[in-house]
Amino acid sequence: MTPAKASAARRFAPAGSTPEAEPCPDDGGRLVEEIVASIREELPAFADIDVDDIRRMAASDIRRGQAAMAERRLPTQEELDASAAVTVGLARASVPLDAINQSRRIAVRRIFDAWRERASSTGADPAAQVEYLYTLWNWTDAITSRAASAYRQVEVEVEGRDEDQRAWYLRGLLDGSLSPLEAQSRAAAYGLLPGGRYTALRARPGAEVDVRQLQRVIETSGATDQGGVLAAVVDGHVWGLVSREPSVPAGQGVAGLGPAGDLAGAAASFRLASRALETATAFGLTGVVSIDDLSLRPVILSEEHVGERLIRRYLDPLRELGEFGATLELTVQEYLRSGMRIDESAKALIIHPNTLRHRIDRFQQLTGADLRRTEDVIEVWWALERRRVSAARAPRAAG
To answer: How far is CA 53 from each of CA 17, 216, 238, rounded to the nearest angstrom?
Structure first.
């Protein structure tokens, strides 16, 4: 307990009472695991909810509930918004409101039992224990009321108006056409925290993958109890805001991520997410790709004339050698990928290090490149990456 909290506790303690117990720590996650086990055992509606999501929800309830007990207060606005975001996610996963409320009652019961056990062992005053209990009840009632309101909003969405409204809100948020006031005021209704930090996302489904399936994958893996997730199908892609990097298997498609920021920066983040998606698609990448992971590749994609000029200088001379020229190109590509380490490159290519040295020398003689010069290394890498873009685009053009 901090000095401020301890002082508050003393102010509310009855005169002559024995010292009060601090909110009990969750020793090694034991309390979280007990709550998770009870929820899964007592509430069949949670059977399809990922256990890690239940664990995060329980840990959040413990942390916030015990803080409210220690400070003798009702929920903060942040706690109300966070509970609403969790409820929205569970509602969209078809968990009934009654089951959500029961899960919170299970958590509250366990929190208080753990605190009471600790309070008894330290000789806390019984009157203080009752006061703590009432504080926890009042805190839970307020949380439950806010959660019920959020759940009703989701029910309205499920009736058919949801998809259009979510897509409208998300489009306006990500293309910058929504006013900051409207973006903030509507955020909680869609499971977002007005003060949370989010990463904009734009994703394209893989071959023979339904875009709604990709949307569900992002919704179920892109949230935390600190933020939530919002995703919708817009113009054949999945647009979204995630509070953590989602898990998109390679076969499901490719998702571009922008930088993280608050809701006011969502449009700027989305522009970079769109560029990341465009670049990843051009280079034949799959899964989740952040704009920060792509190095100079977005520039390589946009500066087409520069790339083609470098191809003519460093790669076209190899064509005259036929199959051996293709071997030299592959050798240089692996050499740069391995950080220009001879032994590692030779091992990857299954050749002798001297053979690798001979090929590198031959490449330098043919092209005039000097791979000891940083400028030449960058230009050769640029040419190879530009060739990779062309190769990735060729099958799509042929199709």
So the answer is: 40, 15, 22
